[in-house]
Amino acid sequence: MLQPLLLILTALLATGSAFSAEPSQELSHHIDGKFRNPHLPADFQPSFIAFLKARLFDDLTWPDDPENYREYWQPANLERIHNPDFNKAQATLIGHSTVLLQHQGMNILTDPIFSQRSSFSQSLGPKRYTPPALNIDQLPHINIIVISHNHFDHLDVDSVKALTSPSFIKNINGTQPLWLVPLGLKKWFAQFGITNIKEMDWWQSLEVGNVTVQAQPSQHWSRRSLFDTNESLWASWAFTWPGSEGNDKFTAWFGGDTAYNPYQFKEIGEVLGQVDLAMIPIGAYEPRWFMKTQHVNPLDAVEIFKDINAKSAFGIHWNTFVLTAEPVDEPPKALERALQKNSINAELFQAMDIGKTWLQQ
Ligand code: ZN
Ligand code: ZN
């Protein structure tokens, strides 16, 4: 009984079908108080019915959770996280798209999800098969938390509650982190009493201490309940630390959740010049006929790597929840093939174990 219900709910939350207007010539992502993808036609999404038919009656199957989750997993190195090299950037993959990015005393957390399930309920929905590489109470002080969009695997109620709890705030020297969210999402945070929050449109920048944070485009969609499709925006985020004596300029880019198109990432590359570290999704991409307008596969991820002029990258959005049809260990293998096809050194763009810390050379 639960299985079909679960399937319908999961599928509903995985489809973005409601675009209400024709794309205009001016390629705006604003439309009628909502948001849209400027590089997709209005009817871009294959129908939910077609998806459900494939899932229920065709041979579209979901992989089982792996038995040995430690193949691409290690506990985070807490010693390094709590004693980073001030002049070198580092980034730790905590799980799914949750990354702790640290540079020059500034600690930034992306799309925090520490919960057991990516769902509207902790009783049903996709359950994580790899634990977070560290717990919330093991985090260092957090200056900024960025959110890419409101899907359950990127915006998690229990994690938001824990990151605003008095005990967490006390633990990190008594200052609330600054939450940076895409347009339309600030009101959702009001229920948790979060006041240190700023909503940003694509290309808006904000200086926070020594880092400039910019909200940038991505190709995705949003929905939190059945009737709020695309009422809030989706975004990728760039972080730039200026060069100073003894320090080179450093730019990191967090892709959030996105599909590929040959426009937005080239534009990001032009604006940023060069990206020293890119965090690019590499998982949740099959079946392609349904996912390709909302999620990249590793081949697309490599196109993004090239378009934004990334020097180094690691994969996010994989090895945590079974959300889609590809085998759970396929993304790193497909990424390696995609890099080889593009004659890019595999060292430069790694799938990277959950828990591992990327270190600036
Ligand atoms: Zn999403
Ligand atoms: Zn996602």
Number of distinct helices: 10
Largest sheet: 7 strands, mixed
- The CATH class label is Alpha Beta
Number of beta-strand segments: 16
Classified in CATH, the superfamily is: Ribonuclease Z/Hydroxyacylglutathione hydrolase-like
Net shape: globular
Identify low-pLDDT runs: 1-26
Order the strands across the largest sheet as they lie in space. 8-7-6-5-4-3-16
Bound molecules: zinc ion
Give the end-to-end Cα distance, rounded to a whole number of Å: 53 Å
Mean pLDDT: 89
CATH architecture: 4-Layer Sandwich
- SSE sequence, one letter per element: HEEHHEEEEHHEHEEEEEHEHHEHEE
Helical residue percent band:
10-25%
CATH overall fold name: Metallo-beta-lactamase, Chain A
Strand content: 15-25%
Considering the chains and any ligands shown, give keywords for the structure:
single chain, 361 residues, alpha/beta, Metallo-beta-lactamase, Chain A, seven-stranded mixed sheet, 16 strands, disordered N terminus, binds zinc ion
